[in-house]
Design a protein that fits this description.
The chain has a 4-stranded antiparallel beta sheet. Helix 2 (about 25-35) crosses helix 14, helix 5 (about 165-200) crosses helix 11 and helix 6 (about 200-215) crosses helix 8. The protein has 14 helices and 4 strands. The longest helix is centred in the middle third of the chain and has 37 residues, at about 165-200. The protein has helices spanning about 10-15, 25-35, 35-50, 55, 165-200, 200-215, 220-230, 235-265, 270-275, 280-295, 295-320, 330-335, 340-345, 350-375; strands at about 80, 90-100, 105-130, 135-145.
């Protein structure tokens, strides 16, 4: 006896119906295939996590000085301790250091103290702070178990301040300048670039001549001139805001030109003509149809602009015309290594913040490249 089974229309449709994905889902699928960009996304996320929860991650106060800990080299983390009977056991610790002074050259040097160790642990108690400025806490992710002990994981500076803590806290300023800068660039670039490409004529000519004028001015002299206008007595917050605006003065020009090109190619498309015939105003056509059609490209362009703004802030602060102490940023930390004596005696003053800048800039560049490739409809 044979039993015949007939597949209904619904069964065949379920087997052969292709998966329908929206433009953002397609962009995400293509982005995940870009392995370097996908890893860079995680690295960028970790850097911004460091910026948000810097006090939780920093083991010491950034302004805590120690005259007996000047130019201390980076201290390593050890895992095994040996007791009096020669038995080894697992314990996270750092070796305590003793300072020695060469009386002939009066130079300090540090040697490990074999009789003392500094136990380390996770979620230890330290200085007081507020999580996101709201929740008071004394818990720190990693550090000495005894709050009175100090371990310089990345060394100390000329005042005995912990470099690791200053790099972590400086991430907030250096990375947020990039975000604030791209917001300013987004508003100015999309607005002026959109007007230039949509209307054309004298509006296009005027805006393009303004862009060419700004791009023809040498960048560093322009920044120096604008930064020189900042009064020295201004509070650090005002200085931070003005430096962000200065960094954004040039960043919007490239985005404006890209938006102009997109508007020139879209303004004669059939769906734009249909929107005009439907009675929509120019602003509604731009906001509802033209900008969303290439929003993914704008996101990719802005991502590539963030590292340029980070480097701009670093350059300004390094030259002494940007952010100044007591504000802590990667640029102000690099300024500590300007003289030859600091580089010779404490090369970690240059290596530690310089490495963070390289990692952040490369991660953001690879992330922007991946987003740009994923947003390109012609890329495979």
């Amino acid at each position: 006896m044979t039993v015949e089974t007939t597949l209904g229309p619904s069964d065949t449709e379920e087997q052969h119906t292709p998966e329908l994905l929206g433009p953002w889902a397609l962009m995400w699928r293509k982005f995940r295939r870009h392995r370097v960009a996908y890893v860079s996304l995680w690295i960028t996320g970790l850097i911004y996590f460091m910026a948000l929860f810097g006090d939780f991650l920093a083991p010491e106060k950034i302004d805590e000085t120690n005259r007996r800990g000047i130019f201390v080299p980076p201290q390593g983390i050890h895992f095994l301790v040996t007791d009096e009977n020669g038995k080894r056991s697992f314990q996270l610790h750092a070796k305590a250091l003793k300072m020695q002074v060469d009386r002939a050259t009066m130079r300090r040097s540090y040697v490990e103290d074999p009789n003392k160790i500094i136990p380390l642990g996770f979620f230890v108690e330290g200085y007081s702070y507020e999580i996101l400025g709201l929740i008071p806490s004394k818990t720190h992710f990693f550090g000495p178990k005894n709050p009175r002990d100090i371990v310089y994981f990345l060394g100390s500076d000329r005042l005995g301040r912990d470099i690791l803590s200053r790099i972590i806290i400086g991430t907030k300023i250096s990375m947020s300048i990039g975000l604030v800068g791209i917001v300013v660039s987004l508003v100015i670039g999309v607005s002026l670039g959109g007007l230039s490409g949509y209307y054309g004529g004298w509006v296009d000519t005027l805006i393009q001549r303004l862009i060419e004028f700004l791009r023809s001015i040498p960048t560093i002299p322009l920044w120096m001139g604008l930064a020189a206008a900042i009064p020295l007595g201004w509070p650090p917050l005002y200085t931070y805001f003005v430096v962000t605006i200065i960094v954004s003065m040039i960043g919007w020009t490239s985005l404006a030109r890209e938006v102009r090109g997109k508007f020139l190619s879209l303004r004669n498309e059939d769906f734009i003509t249909a929107a005009r015939l439907d009675g929509l105003t120019d602003w509604e056509v731009i906001r509802k149809h033209m900008v969303p059609s290439f929003s993914s490209h704008i996101i990719a362009s802005l991502t590539l602009a963030v590292p340029l703004m980070i480097l701009a802030e670093t350059s300004l602060s390094f030259l002494g015309i940007g952010l100044q102490p007591p504000i802590v940023s990667w640029g102000t930390l690099l300024k500590e290594a300007q003289n030859i004596r600091s580089i010779i005696e404490a090369p970690w003053l240059l290596i530690a913040p310089g490495t963070m800048i390289v990692i952040a800039v490369l991660a953001l560049n690879f992330l922007g490249d991946g987003l740009r490739d994923a947003a390109d409809p012609h890329a495979h």
